[in-house]
Every structure is written in C-alpha cells, then in structure tokens.
Amino acid sequence: MSAAAPPPADRPTPPVGRPEPARPRWLWWAAIAAVGAVLLTAGWAGRSDEPVGDRTVGEVTRVGVRPGDHIPGYLRAAAAELAALPPSGPSGTYALVSFTSYLGPQELPRVLADAPVAEVVARVPLPDRQTEVIRLGAQLLPQDVVAAMATVADRKDREAADQRARAATAAGELHRVYATGAEVAAGEARAYRAGCGCVYAAVVRADAAVLRTLAARPGVRAVDPAPELHRLDRAVVIPPLPEQRDVVRPPADTALDPAGPPMGVSSEQARDVIDPSPAGSTAPQVPAPLPTSPDTGGGARPASGG
Q1: Which of helix, strand or coil describes residue 64?
Q2: Residues linked to residue 63 through DSSP beta bridges, in sequence order
Q3: Using CA atoms, how far apart are residues 13 and 206, in angstroms rounded to an integer?
Q4: Among the four residues 25, 185, 202, 306, which has the most C-beta atoms within 10 Å?
C-alpha cells in the first residue's frame, strides 16, 4: 500500500477538530461605514461651490438723501453716476427719479414715459404739518397709483378716528397731540381720496440710455441710479422733497411746536402747496422727510450703519 501524498506545503492543514476561524462580523460593518464616510465627504466637497440659502438676508440698500446732506451736491453726484453708468443687462438698472414738484397721478405717464415704473413715493404737503411718506407699488400709470391712494385714504380715516377717540379721553398736552394727529390724518385721507398732487418721486428700472433720456425730461429733478439694488423689499428710498433746496433738515411741525420758527424749514423752501382738489389754493409748507409707510415694501444702497 502506497503512502498518502502530503498536503500542499503552502497551506498547512488545520488541526483536526479546530476549524479555520471566521472574520469577526464587526470588521465588515466598520469597512462599510468607512467607505460610506468617504463617499459622503466627496459628495459635499463637490457641492461646495453651490449657493446655500439667500445670501442677501439682512442686507439693506439705501438710495437717496439723509438728514444733513447737501442737496446740490447730491444732485451733482447723481448726474455724474448716471453719466458713467454702463449699459444695463436685460433687466435694466433701478434708479430713483426725483421730481421738481408734487405731481398728481394723471401727470405721471407724461413724465415717466418709456421708463418702467416699480413704485412711486408720495406725501400730502399740508401746510406746517408733518405727513407720512409712503411708497406705492405702481406698474400701470395712473390706475395703480389712484387705487393705492384710495387704499391709503381708508387707512388714514381709521387713524383719524382712533386719534379722535384718544383725544376724547386725554387732557392737556396729550389731548393736543392726539387732536393734531386726527386733524392731519383726516387731511391726508381727503387728499389721497381726491387723487392729490402728492407724488414727488418714483423708482424705475430701465437701461442706462432710457435713464439718461428721462433725466433730461421737464419735471425731472434727478435720476439717481442704483445698480447695486436688486430687491425693493430690502431698500430704503429717501428722495429729496421738492421744497428742499439747500440742506436736508429734520422734519418740523409748527402745530406741535408753535413757540418759534420750525427747525425743518429750508432757507429756500417752496411757497406753494398743491391742494388735493383740482382748483387748489396755495399756502406755505414745511418739508417733512418722514420714514416710509408700512403700506408698501421698502428697499437702496448697502447700509453702512444707521
């Protein structure tokens, strides 16, 4: 009987009764987890150049003037910026258009012809009174402005009623404040409901060539381009009032401070006020650059603070 051949030398036979040990199960799971982590990291690295969320959240742009600004200097700066403005993209460039006087809704199509309008800025120029500056969304002129004015008139009627109710239960100085507030709100309501000459600026979006043509049109005081403005709801828009000629001063109200000359009167203030009725009368007025109304969205230049 021949002897059995020995097993291959490169793979020794395991001892009898002791099977070859299997790999621990946890090693397999660890390997799978490691591979998954590498793939996940590579996936995020490949997306690192994609935008995450809205990077403009909290950004505020300001266009126009601030208290203390020199108005002739502002007008020169706006004209220089407009002259240097490069051709706009397909969507155009936002610009703040200031008027030489307060205009009624029916006058706007003539002054703003060929310039797509986003909104207008208005206030009722009541004599010696602070009145609210409001921004009214308007794309179709004059219909959108007339409709927006009617909405504001309703709100002003409610404000007047509220102020009268407060005045009825107040005494002394507080009574006078509430009574004056009711008087002003009622005057604003009447003016807006009548489609008053109250619009003194507009925000348009057009190509540089259209903006330059607009700046040369009668009734236009300045066209202040804002190429950095992309969203009106994140803009603060403050155009100079038509009666402001030298320096932008704080608002004044002689009804609440009758003891002396109003602090807000410009040395070159206009002598006329446009009455809400077609056959309006004239009277002195006081500039009142007040905050914009909550009726409309706001947005202008990146705010450097304040």
Answers
A1: strand
A2: 237
A3: 88
A4: 202
CA-based nearest residue to 229, from 80, 53, 96: 96
Residue 21 confidence class, pLDDT cut points 50, 70, 90: low
Task: State the Cα angle at 105 between 103 and 107, rounded to 5°.
Answer: 60
What CA–CA distance (Å, rounded) separates 126 from 198? 10
Q: Answer whether 95's CB lies under 8 Å from 206's CB.
A: yes
- 30: tokens are 């660890």
Whole-number Cα distances in Å, 30 to 24, 27, 35, 41: 11, 5, 9, 17
- Tokens encoding 296: 């409309």
Please tell me the distance from the alpha carbon of residue 23 to that of residue 299, in angstroms, as a whole number.
66
Q: Are strands 61-64 and 235-238 parallel, antiparallel or unpaired?
A: parallel
**Which of the two residues, 31 and 82, has the higher pLDDT score?**
82
Considering only CA atoms, which of 243, 287, 285 is closest in space to residue 126? 285
- Helix, strand, coil distribution of the chain in percent, nearest 5: 35, 15, 50
Q: Which residues are registered as beta bridge partners of 61?
A: 235, 302
Helix (H, G, I), strand (E, B) or coil at 187: helix
- Name the residue ranges covered by the structural domains of the chain: 61-141+196-302
